[in-house]
Amino acid sequence: MVRVSKSLLAGLGLAAYPAHAALTVNLDSPESIKQAAAQVAEDLLTFYHGDEPGWVPGILPGPPPDGEYYWWQGGAMWGALMDYRHHTGDKSYDDITSTAMLFQVGDDRDFMPRNWSASMGNDDQAFWALSALTAAETGFTDPAAEEPQWLSLAQAVFNEQTHEDRRVPSGNCEWGLRWQVFPSNNGYDYINTIANACYFNIGARLARYTNNNTYSDLAARTFDIMERLGYVDKDWNVYDGAHLPDCTDINKAQFSYNAAMLMQGAAFMYNYTDGEQMWADRINGLLTRTLAVFFPDGVAFEPSCEPGNCNADMRSFKGFLHRWMGSTAQLAPFTYDTIMPVIKKSVAAGVAQCTGGDNGRFCGFHWTTGVFDGRTGAGQQMNVLGGLTALLAANPPLTNTTGGTSLGDPNAGSDRTTITQLAEITGGDKAGAGILTAIMIAGAVGAFSWMSID
Ligand SMILES: *[C@@H]1O[C@H](CO)[C@@H](O)[C@H](O)[C@H]1NC(C)=O
Ligand SMILES: *[C@@H]1O[C@H](CO)[C@@H](O)[C@H](O)[C@H]1NC(C)=O
Ligand SMILES: *[C@@H]1O[C@H](CO)[C@@H](O)[C@H](O)[C@H]1NC(C)=O
Ligand SMILES: *[C@@H]1O[C@H](CO)[C@@H](O)[C@H](O)[C@H]1NC(C)=O
């Protein structure tokens, strides 16, 4: 055989798909995992153009129809890269990450830039806050003094979402957090699991970081509501949400990020309370059911959409699932021996199908099939990146007293412009197109149609 270089092939107009180009990794070697993660991260960044002229910093191309990604997914990506940095020590993306995060804080320093009002869900805002918290917990470089600080950004979002104007005033779902922020957006009457689970997770983490029980009390109250409403049922299934007035029309679609967000939040509560039995029970319940529902053959699978059509939102859930299970194993060490072998087996399958794209190592979404499915995307890369980072040991999340340096402001977000005023300024276009428009598509393939009960 004559050896030809890639550039020569390209010069001849031939696609370079060398058979050896697949992502390869030895999952017993931390060095090998780091190397593979670096490649997956590099390929992930090919989907980001916010550092190029004419593009908006912080976000992935979108929202539809301008590109397939909603605003929240940019925020989620920076969190995934911060976790990658924490677990590998690779600081290559520090500048791009800081610039991106700070560009999207908005005029009120609360991750609600006016551009994105038309689809602003409490969950969308929370995903950016969660990445800011990850920055504080992993010792990510603090912004300059005149810029908003990571901890205070998370506090601003939590305080705003605690406010009654984001919540149901009375009735069966009293104090539930709404999906959408603005009354003019579709979904304002949907009280969904992800919005409440994000709030719960932020509260648990703020409590642990700042050692302030106000946050953990509000977090615990949130978990109680979700159990009472049956969003988390007695068998630890985690459903998607329900509508006003009663929150009884439960949409039984199950998505892994809902369960994983609750599991990781419960692990923070368990750790913060020095091992309270109630939180151990909740972790055990959620973990057992998560393994049954989302790892049917030991490999990550999204049962509510993968047999049909997962959208770009859903195509990023596996990364959250693996990262937050890894975090659970660390904060609630009694789960370690159960969780880590599952992550390892699942990631092996995830890596095996990374044979796509123009370098022959981009990942697809269908891990259980063992073959690249022909479609690349930021979510697909984030999934394998999250799986690989979850396998690497790292220091536990910092707190205010164990080395965390991020400065907080307990009153952040308390004095911002009210929702009504802001809604008048921006006008909602009623797109209702946030993170879980998703559900409409899921409804078509499985479970229960969101549209039919809306
Ligand atoms: C808002 O949109 C404008 C117009 O596209 C853009 O120039 C600006 O950078 C955006 N701001 C944010 C925070 O996304
Ligand atoms: C909390 O997390 C730390 C770090 O992983 C761990 O050493 C400690 O044992 C955990 N606490 C409990 C009660 O398990
Ligand atoms: C910890 O929190 C206290 C009270 O908010 C604050 O005064 C102190 O500066 C914080 N410590 C560090 C290391 O940030
Ligand atoms: C604890 O958090 C609450 C809620 O933000 C705040 O009002 C209170 O001042 C905080 N307590 C301390 C001691 O910082």
Explain this structure.
The chain has 454 residues and is an all-alpha fold. The protein has one domain (6-453): Glycosyltransferase (Alpha/alpha barrel). Helices cover 47% and strands 1% of the residues. It has 16 helices and 2 strands. The protein has helices at 6-11, 30-44, 71-88, 94-103, 122-137, 150-162, 193-210, 213-229, 256-272, 277-294, 317-331, 336-352, 378-390, 419-426, 438-445, 450-453; strands spanning 190-192, 241-243. It has a two-stranded antiparallel sheet with strand order 1-2. Helix 5 (122-137) runs parallel beside helix 7 and helix 11 (317-331) packs antiparallel against helix 12. The longest helix is centred in the N-terminal third of the chain and has 18 residues, at 71-88. The termini are far apart. The model is unreliable at 1-17, 420-434 and 436-454 (pLDDT under 50). The structure holds 2-acetamido-2-deoxy-beta-D-glucopyranose (NAG) (4 copies). The site of one 2-acetamido-2-deoxy-beta-D-glucopyranose (NAG) has 8 residues, from helix 11.
Bulk shape: globular
Tell me the number of helical segments per DSSP (H or I, 4 or more residues long).
16
**In the CATH scheme, what's the topology name?**
Glycosyltransferase
Approximate helicity band? 40-55%
- pLDDT averaged over residues: 90
* Rg over C-alpha atoms, rounded to the nearest angstrom: 21 Å
Share of residues in strands: under 5%
Q: State the low-pLDDT regions, or none.
A: 1-17, 420-434, 436-454
From N to C, what is the helix and strand string? Answer: HHHHHHEHHEHHHHHHHH
- Indicate the structural class: mainly alpha
Q: How many extended strands? A: 2
Number of domains: 1
Protein name: Mannan endo-1,6-alpha-mannosidase
Subcellular location: Endomembrane system
Catalytic activity: Random hydrolysis of (1->6)-alpha-D-mannosidic linkages in unbranched (1->6)-mannans
Transmembrane segments: 431-453
